[in-house]
Amino acid sequence: MTTIAEFMTALHRKCDEGLAAAEEAVSSKDWDKARADWSDFAAEMALHFAQEETTLFPSFETATGITEGPTSVMRMEHEQMRHLLSELSKAVEARDESEFLGLSETLMVMIQQHNMKEEQMLYPMCDRALSDAGAIIAEIQAVTADGE
Amino acid sequence: MNISRLSFDDMPPLAIPLRFHLTAPVFGLAAAALLLVEGPSAWLSRWTAGSLGATHLLTLGFMSMVMIGSLFQVIPVITGRSIPGTRQIAPVVHVALCAGVVALTWALIRPDAALFKAAIALLALAFVPFITALSWRVMSIRRGGVSVFTIRLAALALLGTVGLGVFLAVGRTWPEFELPFRSWTDIHVVWGLFGWMPLLVMGVSYQVIPMFHVAPEFDSRLARGVPLVVFLSLVALSHSRSAYLVVPIVTCLAIALITYAVMTLRILARRKRKRPDATVSFWRLSLGALVVGTLLLWSSMSTPLRAPILEQSQVPILLGVIMVFGVACSVIIGMLQKIVPFLVFLHLQRMTLSNLPAMRLVPKMNDVISDRDARWQFRLHATACVAVLLALIWPTLGRVAALALALDFGWLLRDLVAAAARYRRIRQAIEAVAS
After folding, report:
1. ipTM score here?
2. Measured between CB atoms, which of A27, A70, A106 is closest to B365?
């Protein structure tokens, strides 16, 4: 059966690929494709944050009683990434290649160190703390980008 | 298990890796200066004072310096746990390694028994605590997969290289022991250049290439099998007393190293992140050099090498130049273009975690080392690689090669010092906002 760690890690890889596609379009100055790829990626990220913040993290916090631990750090890092995402959206609108590529390299690094903590620590902790992974995954899949 | 007590991540202060990263290019510059002073003679044989001195300035002062500093940083990232006693050990290792490299280089240039003794003591002070603490961590951890598996072998290979190096230095200090000097030197060199260095490069690449370049994961059987074959080949080579066995053993070693290089080049070619990136160019240069260096080792061991443009005594230097400068320095300089901006960003980002408005002060990755500077670093390094190869063919070009090396390491030092200064400035600005 799929674990929470495996399911969530696959979502991370999908986001990585979305960012790589947008970067490639910007590097080749294909701005129409860049806008489309960017908006797909930004939507994917918003959905992923919502899935964690409204479903996975609260379940973990309820099961373990830990609210000021890893999930709180992850929420703060999500805020920082949202800040970078909004800066990047402005760069795409302004068709500013160097600003975009500078910010996207920073976002990529931010995402990778964040993912590593989730994939190596938090998700395995979730798998240990939450007995019914299947039900949690179904709940995560039901979340939409606006967090409903 | 009480999960609330698990440290979420265990990152050492920036000063710990950065002190190693900042001093390393100074030793690279020292190697360039030594080659400049020695002139053409340094390129004629591996036993000249200039050649021996420059080799150790580069292998210990630059290569091992960066590798050790980075291990203090990367081990907690890969395993979730620091090298034990990091904060106490790292400053001692750093000072002892710096002083040890200076003493050893001096002793190799102007042979002096007292200096050799000092070098042995200082390098032991650097390596014994480091290898002990590193081994303790990587042997006791269960997580980390193929990276940790490979770094374990790298730690053992470092132990072998340093152990043999101490043995050789003892032989020079107390000549009455009459140690079999030259043959043991070869084994020392092979453990360093075909063991410790490539094994660590492999272990780190398994982690960073898929992550930073959005590339496919390494095949786990090959990723585990290749370092194992490398390590076992080196063990077999060290114990082999028969010339007949050397050829099959070196063939195994060569097949493993070339498999690694080809596998990694293919993974890089299949990366999803296609934006221009100097670090990818550095990786390719390094892996290409690894193929060439491995083929050279194999052909020089299996047949008396016919290299008409080189003197026979220069073949080992050529091998050393390719492995140290082409393989190790390329990947190290390339990785530093990413690691240092990453660490600067990460530490400042942590400071603003609960203070979002201060995040505008945190620099972007390429504000720390710009893409343009990284591209120039690659050009300077590729030029220096060509220059050192030409100096082997025409030793009269030795001083030109030394200048090319000085430019390469000088550029690196400039970028790293600027990055550290920027970190300091922005940290103060963030602290001012917070208070």
Report:
1. 0.83
2. A106
